[in-house]
Amino acid sequence: MKLADNKATLSFSNGSPSVELPVYQGSVGPDVVDIRKLYAQTGMFTYDPGFLSTASCQSAITYIDGDKGELLYRGYPIEQLATNCDFLETCHLLLYGNLPNAAGKAEFTKRVSNHTMVNEQMQFFLRGFRRDAHPMAIMTGLVGALSAFYHDSTDINNPEHREIAAIRLIAKMPTLVAMAYKYSVGQPFMYPKNNLSYAGNFMHMMFATPCEEYVVNPVIERALDRIFTLHADHEQNASTSTVRLCGSSGTNPFAAIAAGVACLWGPSHGGANEACLNMLEDIQKMGGISKVGEFMEKVKDKNSGVKLMGFGHRVYKNYDPRAKLMQETCKEVLTALGLENDPLFKLAMALEKIALEDDYFVQRKLYPNVDFYSGIVQRAIGIPVSLFTAIFALARTVGWIAQLNEMIGDPEYKIGRPRQLFTGSERRDVLPIAKR
Ligand code: CMC
Questions:
Q1: What is the DSSP string of 360-418?
Q2: CA distance 45 to 10
Q3: DSSP helix/strand/coil, 156
Q4: How far is CA 19 from CA 12, 410, 420, in A?
Q5: Environment class of residue 120 by beta-carbon count within 10 Å: exposed (0-12), middle (13-18) or buried (19+)?
């Protein structure tokens, strides 16, 4: 961290002495005021629920400029990565900080491929779930359970354990998601095929059966690979911060990632893709495009509790660059599958157009986010709506583990322990039960 030339001075209107606080500069983006000694110096905490103005860590992995609508992984724009690189190259970049050359890519791909199978016992664990369990409930359980199977990669303080846990998680997530799907439809689990690409192998495990040869459609393979790349990391979002906080206690990497999966499930975060598609289907049932105006009135009515899912973002106050790329992929997939006239896609475009022109959205700088179009692509591919967030989890795993490993390697890292502004009862005495 580089000290800035200036310092911040905090003064108090009650005459308490003012304090000087160091300011640090990042390589790009806003400076931060270092408040770590504030409590020791003043006996006061800062108050920032939701982390609206708080940098919880230093990181060199992902940078977002929300006003510009820019997303960089290790300095590379997401548009270039999504167009010129595949997901495993992106994983290498996020984990190790550099894009691999051809030999490095082949070696990394081989390492990941070596770990695509899961312990055979995992299927018995999975069979304990009801067939209609939500895939994210299953994934939370299965990812946590990995720590019970891979004892040689559970010491978070051992760099070799962290490295092998990272590779295992990236390799096994597609296998687990596909198993959760196969279990829900009562089909046999398909073992991974390591001669296929990462996305192609996932499609095979999802859609092949032992009865017939399965041929991977390259357009869908590319689309899935892009979905993975676009979701691979997003700096200190809720699930990543959860992984960091969970891992800061020294727990094992699988447990920390399971915490991330649990957090991602919520509809304000990764669950938005499922919620967005359900919303589009509901509007379609109400009458489709002709009902968009009516639906928008509900969204703008604060008392209705209705939100335009797939719109708005804490950081982006401009078009989410991932949404643009996802819209492009959406068109490509629908065309390749002969679904150009897909009514949900048309509906989504109509909603987007109205929202981008509407004062409510313009004033609040609400734009489509990555989830607005990803559900339409996944549905066209044949992925059931309830599995959407599990696909997001599969893709985000590399970001979670890269951020977790970065934290553990940071000499300034401490167990996360926020403080509070206490508003409850002051000390009081317990009365005997007859007198309460
Ligand atoms: N529809 C209608 N109004 C909205 C929406 C929306 N989707 N998003 C924000 N607003 C309004 C909100 O009501 C508030 O209005 P006001 O100032 O009048 O009270 C204003 O815009 C600011 O919103 P906020 O809730 O204070 O913003 P936030 O940063 O706390 O929330 C968000 C960000 C993503 C949770 C929110 O925009 C949202 O709930 N969007 C829908 C869910 C969604 O698509 N989530 C996916 C996020 S991207 C994928 C990921 O990284 O997980």
A1: HHHHTT--B-THHHHHHHHHHHT--GGGHHHHHHHHHHHHHHHHHHHHHH-TT------
A2: 13
A3: coil
A4: 9, 27, 21
A5: exposed
What's the token pair of residue 209? 């059966």
pLDDT given for residue 152 in this prediction: 81
Would you list the DSSP string of 346-367?
Answer: HHHHHHHHHHHHSHHHHHTT--
Atom of ligand 1 nearest to the CA of 237: 51
Active site residue 371: yes
Q: Count how many residues are written for the chain.
A: 436
Q: Which two tokens stand for residue 85?
A: 């690189």
User: Nearest C-alpha to atom 29 of ligand 1 is from which residue?
Assistant: 314
With a threshold of 0.90, does the pTM exceed it? yes
Distance (Å) from CA 239 to ligand 1 centroid:
17
The pLDDT score that the predictor gives to residue 333 is 94
Contact 234, 62 (CB under 8 A): yes
pLDDT digits (tens, 9 = 90+) for 375-420: 899 999 999 999 999 999 999 999 999 999 999 999 989 999 999 9
Going by CA atoms, what residue is nearest to atom 17 of ligand 1? 364
User: What angle (nearest 5°) sits at the alpha carbon of residue 433, between those of residues 428 and 435?
Assistant: 75
Match 């583990």 to its residue by tokens.
401
Q: Which residues of the chain have pLDDT under 70?
A: none
Cα torsion at 278, 280, 282, 284 (round to 10°)? -150
In one letter, which amino acid is 214? Y
For residue 268 and ligand 1, the question of a CB distance below 6 A is answered with yes
DSSP code per residue over 173-211: HHHHHHHHHHHHHTPPPPPP-TTS-HHHHHHHHHH--TT
Look-up of token digits 């495990």: 205
The burial class, CB within 10 Å (0-12 / 13-18 / 19+), for 110 is exposed
Q: What is the pLDDT of residue 340?
A: 86
